[in-house]
Amino acid sequence: MSQYKCILLILIFALSCKTDKDNTNRKESKIDLEIDTDKSLSLISKVDTIFDTNAPKRITRNIKLDSQGNLLIAAYDDIIRYNGDSFSLLNKPESLKSWYAFDVLEDSKGNIWIASDQSGVFRIDSQTGTVKNFTTEDGLGHLRNMCIYEDKDGNIWVGGQGGLSKYDGIKFRNFTIKDGLPHNDINTILEDNKGNIWFGTRGNAGLFNGHTFSELKNNEGKSFFNVWSIIEDKSDNVWLVDSSGLWKYSNETFIYKKQNVWKIYEDSKRDFWHTGMLNGGASTLKHIEGDTINNNDFDVTEVFKSEKMFFGIVEDKKGNIWIGGGDGIWLYNGKTVEYYTGTKKIK
């Protein structure tokens, strides 16, 4: 994927609430926004830039943790591991120029899985280091994939532009709108503590109970739109982010909580972090006190801003917050922000 295609994809996301062909006639629901208070007392204005040859050089959409607590970074061309001291690249096959990686995970067997925007799915064997490329010839539903997830039974779920694919270790089973899937363009996947598979799409949100699919609706019976983030918190509440903002699923209904949210994350202290988009393509990171998030007026602190886009969020084993984004990753240690990049030219 060229740089121009990446930029186009970002613009499509930002404007998709107006342009998605499946939702052209969708009427926006009227929502009474709950008021929150944005605080800027700890807003960090200075970000130190640190160049490292092996740090991300392209857009980093997702960051995960491996079994040792190291960062696994999907930096489009490269999959990068950060052990707390240094960055190292996972070896690509000589014939492979780029992973075209949108997402990465380490499964319960120690294998590394990569969701590729161009080439299907890759698996790096934990024992041999052998790279297996799964494509449509192997039964995978589509070559262009955005997210990858392992459920409690060890099944690997893949979501992309061709629906959902489930790999049981032997073969793929694919789901599309023909099978009841509400939308074929999948952004994110989550299994809740009851074993239900939640998924967010560029069009709406849905749930698979192991037998059938159903579309999720908000408290007014309206469809969600452009769902990029779904998490289950440590109290078993599900949080969903669509183009209108943050929703909490409670008592079998969704409650609207906050606007201008892109990604939502709960840390080990049960505090929440979220990114948001600003005018002109800039982004912001904000912190929510966990014991206030269920209040109508909860505490939100803006931590820092960037002219670059923010994507995935993760907490490392030391309690630092990492954010993936444009041509690098940000580290927030509670006091300062450092931006790591493999690109020397910084605007």
TrEMBL record:
Gene3D superfamilies: YVTN repeat-like/Quinoprotein amine dehydrogenase. InterPro entries: Reg_prop, WD40/YVTN_repeat-like_dom_sf. It comes from the Bacteria. This is Two component regulator propeller. It comes from Polaribacter batillariae. The lineage of its organism: Bacteria, Pseudomonadati, Bacteroidota, Flavobacteriia, Flavobacteriales.
